């Protein structure tokens, strides 16, 4: 499905958007709920990734299956978390696979760590990559080390199953830690269900067993990554533009909550309201000539920030992005491919992107390829405020935000299928 987004000149005022729960929190809590069924959760994400996670966990409860086959499609989080989950599910044999792109995304670091703990995981095709076969069993070891400068999802996968290990887990991280806030999110959610943890220097300890007394429903905060696209819309709009987003906390567990500070650079103010909503407003047209940001803790908003800067004519240098090369696509290459025809001068390295220039406002229609990456589609959509766009394979947004296009229509964007 290709969508045409018209160059709509409008001022958004008093618009309200309800974004579903954080995908990151949802997938962690779904796994914890599978391990501790008396946990109750509310405001779960309606993303494809979370639906895949839920479906796999429900299938795991069906007994008398000789061999269970789970296909996570493009869901990287589900692939990593479910690898750890099925490794401790005694008496279950699982083949865990995914899309062709998923089969190009490495998983060896996590598999090696689990096997060191006593797991039985083998590769079916290419060494180090899905699909994998997992024979669930009791894990007897409690100490493991792994590189800290890789995907934090490997680390979180181990932490989520740690309370079910007989002696808990001592996890030693080697080197500089990537995406530390996501590790801290996992530990905070473990603490919330009664698991004792510590994180001192590069050593994480997780005690065995959870203490869940009279559990209350855990309300999942809405997704800050999804909120980023509205920050971009407001930044690219005129003064007075205002959007209210529901269910966001000032003391968020999500790394992407840094948006409320970062977008001050682009004249966007954030007010945290008493009802747990936020109001984001364009209050100033002042902007820097250039901006340099280290985004190793929040790489998921890199594409949004890159497009915002380009749309405002602000040169940017974004660093700490080495994990973007193993996402749904190589996001640094994809950004260069799509921004260059619009008039940008883009340079990329293995972990950074540099962008100069501003949109060619004479363009009658810019065509944006999405590379099966939901964030490419949504990050570029706000640019329609400046130039008309066609977004190819626009349906990819369902991976994290299925209601995205309808929500844009509700605040005045003119969108039609072509």
3D structure, described in words:
This protein is an alpha/beta fold and 418 residues long. The protein has helices at residues 23-35, 48-59, 76-87, 108-116, 152-161, 180-192, 224-236, 259-262, 302-312, 331-339, 374-380, 404-410; strands spanning 3-5, 15-17, 41-42, 68-71, 93-97, 120-123, 132-135, 143-147, 169-174, 197-200, 203-206, 218-219, 242-245, 268-272, 278-282, 290-294, 315-319, 345-348, 353-356, 366-368, 389-391, 415-417. Strands 20-21-1-22 form a four-stranded mixed beta sheet, with helices on one face. A hairpin with an 8-residue loop joins strand 6 (120-123) and strand 7 (132-135). The longest helix is centred in the N-terminal third of the chain and has 13 residues, at 23-35. It is globular. It starts with a strand and ends with a strand. The mean pLDDT is 92.
What are the key terms here?
418 residues; 4-stranded mixed β-sheet; 29% helix
* Helix percentage: 25-40%
Q: Care to count the β-strands?
A: 22
Beta-strand portion reads 15-25%
Q: How would a crystallographer describe the biggest sheet? A: 4 strands, mixed
Helix/strand/pairing category: alpha/beta
- Rounded to an integer in angstroms, the radius of gyration calculated over CA atoms is 22 Å
Q: On the 0-100 scale, what is the average pLDDT? A: 92
Say what oligomer this is: single chain
Arrangement of strands in the largest sheet: 20-21-1-22
Helix count equals 12
> What form results from the Cα inertia axes?
globular
Q: Which spans of ≥5 residues are poorly predicted at pLDDT below 50? A: none
How far apart the termini lie comes to 8 Å
